[in-house]
# Entry
Amino acid sequence: MSTHIFHTPEVQDFLRLASGLDQEGGNPRTKAITHRILSDLFKTIEELDITPDEYWAGIAYLNQLGARSEAGLLSPGLGLDRYFDMRMDAEDAALGVAGGTPRTIEGPLYVAGAPVEQGFARLDDGSDANGHTLIMHGTVHGADGKPLPGATVEVWHANTKGFYSHFDPTGEQKPFNMRRTIVTDAQGRYRFQSIVPVGYGCPPDGPTQALLNQLGRHGNRPAHIHFFVSAEGHRKLTTQINIDGDPLVYDDFAYATREGLVPALVERSDEESIQRNGLSGPFAEIAFDMTLSALVNGVDNQIVERARLAA
Ligand code: MBD
Ligand code: FE
# Structure
């Protein structure tokens, strides 16, 4: 079809009508966003000559996405989460904010309400038979470079199948397995024992993977560990570290890898290290210090509110 009607007054009036722009009630922001997105969609339909069959396949797709609760998974897969980070980085640059640990995306698998521990926590419950012990530790620094006692380090990661507790299709994991909130000690230090995670893969039969297949892309993440770090007088940091050596470290379907977020992982098998950590065998060690950024004019100007599971 080579008809071009998008720019006609009829279609332009129709877009305003459908977006409620001629109505008194409703929410002006919602109207503005709806009008823009609807206009872009109408235009796309015309310019790419999208057929009704293609359109209705898209509608069925949206229903599948909702039915499988995968909207929050498709979002990072299409780079939207990364784009919001790029925008926040640019805003920081414009404001002259620099120097803290790089942010990277939250992802869809955080759960609020994890057990709180002081200084040290064991994250795993020992039930993952394939687990290789991990000791990770570091100091949380404030914007002035000084250690921050009493800072909150929320940490969450996957097991050796790449599954997260509360979202594990096998049902194997107990609530809050590999999820803790660690409060830094008097020297600003956090420390935890867990197991080295394995990378996540999108559900192979789900709608996110189906679209990625159409794009010729994979749906896998390198092994990683998530953090929220919060402290008085500072902005909340959302970040992750990647497990160094994972083949996908620079090929993440969610685009979360960043310079400065791939700390060295050191294998320790000497008796001294094993005993000092109260362990019985070889383990992997990651040292990773973090630096928070100061509030901007007294507020966290980049705090993100979103629907999150709480248990
Ligand atoms: C994850 O574990 C994750 O961190 C992201 C961003 C997407 C899917 C699964
Ligand atoms: Fe993750």
